[in-house]
Amino acid sequence: MVDSGTPCGRIRASSRIEIKTLSVDADRVTGGDVLVQVQVPSGTPLASVRMKAGGRDVTSVLQSTALNTLTGLVTGLALGKNVLTVRNGRALNSRGDAGDHELSDHRPT
User: Fold this and answer.
1) Residue 96: its pLDDT value, please?
2) CB under 8 Å, gap of 24 or more: what pairs does 81-84 form?
3) Tens-digit pLDDT profile for the chain (109 aa)?
4) Claim: this prediction has a pTM higher than 0.90
């Protein structure tokens, strides 16, 4: 879930994983990189969070930046549609243990 209406400095508590692009709108990525913020449900161990971009593990870019929040610069995105998938290390279920976010890279030609 993406909360594009929440200002960068204010993150609301949630029972689901939320993925937000900080550097640009998700449909306006250029140059193959995007700064993302991931908010996980309260009580989720940040070390259990895993993120993939197009199937490639990019967890190592994530750094804790606030309570229940990780931020990182994802690089190497493909031209066109990219999907970021975040899981908290448990099996996917309806409680919000995973989140997906679609990005579109439009590089100038």
Assistant:
1) 43
2) 82/29, 82/53, 82/54, 83/53, 83/54, 84/19, 84/36, 84/51, 84/52, 84/53
3) 333 343 444 444 557 888 888 988 877 787 889 999 999 988 889 999 999 998 899 999 999 999 999 999 999 988 888 888 888 875 443 344 456 666 666 665 5
4) no
Structural domain spans, the chain: 1-77
Task: Quote the tokens at residue 58.
Answer: 């990019």
Question: Nearest 5°: phi and psi at 20?
Answer: -135, 135
In order of 9, 62, 81, the CA distances from 58 in angstroms are 24, 8, 17
Comparing CA positions, the residue from 34, 30, 45, 21 lying closest to residue 105 is: 30
CA distance 73 to 36: 6
- The answer to whether 51 and 86 are in contact (CB under 8 A) is yes
Place of tokens 């993120």: 51
Both tokens of 77, joined, read: 């995105």
Name which of 67, 98, 84 is nearest 21 in CA terms: 84
